[in-house]
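quick one, 264 residues, struct below
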Amino acid sequence: MKNILVPVGSSKNALSHLQYAVDFAKIFGAKLFVVQVYNVYTKAGTMIKVDHIIERESLEFLNTLVSKIETKGVEVIVKTLKGKLIDTLELACKAAEVDLVLIEPRTNSIRDEVFLGKTSGKIIKQMQVPALIVPEGYSFSQPSNILMAIKSAIIKKEGVLNPLKDIKTRFNAVVDLLLVKTPYYKEGDFNVNDDLKSLVNNITKTENATTFHGVLRHYESHNPDMLCVVRRKRGFFTKKWEKNTILKKAFHSTIPVLVLSGMK
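---
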């Protein structure tokens, strides 16, 4: 894991989130890209030359944030980017060969009942780069027990498990696999290939309405300090995040959540 990207909004948690990102990147010897995306909607004849003002203020904001954290020798690159959020972030990830995106649960939302705000939900739902959701105010600690919850173990994409492999290896973590049989179960979904099997210590099978319900049922018995799930077209997050936000009553995690890109 060499390059990590951190999109920054205007939340009160920005400093804590950046410090976690630095601490995480330091363990891997990774480069940290701290970015803020802005867009300007104008009418003809108005808001002339406003772009450079917003860009300057955004850059000043990011530099001020970075000046308040301990960088601990990590190379931190600050960028302001103009464009639509997802398109711009995806281009940035491709250009910088980003391995992981670190996001806050709520970037702009002030509603206490919201777990993922509109911006963070959109990033998780629409981007294909692996992401790590870091709870608000969460101080970095090395994960020792990771619970991976999936409803299908079929892997067709090459390298999809790399972020999990990197984290497991770097932190010498134990990975437990939870296979959740939902009403959409298909024959062969629980066939775990050698690549995935080599990563996990224990495999548990359960039958629940959704993958999330399976996590709730087995959370305490596994006592993980990191959760790993997979982004699918109609999978763990999609239905809940079709409006880009997700309420705490639908999903809430007090530990970091690693979201892998789709395996199929």
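The chain is about 30% helix and 25% strand.
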